[in-house]
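Predict structure. Chain length: 337.
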Amino acid sequence: MRVRRLRAGLRGWGGVGAMAAVCALALAFVLLLPRTQSHGAAPAAGGPGTAKGMQARAGDCTDADAQNRSLAPSAADGPTVAAIRQRGYLSVGVDQNSYRWGYRNPNNASGALEGFDIDLAHRIAKDILGDGDKVQFRAIPTNERVNAIRSGRVDMVVRTMTITCDRLDQVAFSAPYFLTGQQVLAPRTSAITGYDKSLAGKRVCSATGSTAYDHLSADRKNGTLPASTDIGTTVPNQLDCLVRLQLGEVDAVVTDGALAASQAAQDPTVQLKGGTFTKEYYGVAMKLGADDLVRQVNRILDQYRKDGGWKASYDKWLSPTLGGRSESATPPAPAYR
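Prediction complete.
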């Protein structure tokens, strides 16, 4: 039975996803330069020594309004943006194996990264540097996104990263650029019906450092989730959970619904179970103190929404899996503190 499931899961994009995830485990920090030349190991702008800026978590922050705490848009330059321009390229932490978000399409001979997040990174580089290809991509595992920013390895992370109060204590975020929610992914033949009592006694996988694991842990403690639910399987990269599911090592995956939909498109033997049970907003994450960069990114996001760039990218990458009428199909309206 397990062999049949594995073979079915490795057909088409499922196989690509599995192969990519295995590679990602071994090469999580590999430098990806699909469309730029190597620039050496120059540190990201706004590295160690940058003064802590004003975007810190307020004492009354709740995750329900965390997405409204970014700085207002501005075109004014500052030290962080100036350093990026002097260097000549933007360093961005991304995923390389999330189908339709940030991934390597095996049918693209150039090997360039593609996806919704990749489009946004190119747009930011084009606005700041005048050339969308002046961007250096670094593959960052899910559990290393915050560290990559704080250590100065990248200028920003554009990698399906949810804005939360805890993270606002560690990094600065742009205004939200995408709305999604947590959801359950399981085999089509599974009796699991969603984020409910059907998870009793089931093994559930999530990514280390993800909001999915935070919800699983909290809900098992407060009784929302059955106490017998096994949430002990965590992985560095979210897509690794799909591989565990294909191998029969877990019974379900909890992750952002937008990512889960893409994984279901990769592997027709799995499907979304039940609806989303949270509301989460993705933001571009940057270093605390890089206020000028945060304001510039918010200005770029405003333009991206207004000129149709966001919609065009959504229609190209995400509409096939999420549809044109879902809540995610419209960019979230920004609100600034």
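Summary: Residues 319 and 329 are 7 Å apart (CA to CA).
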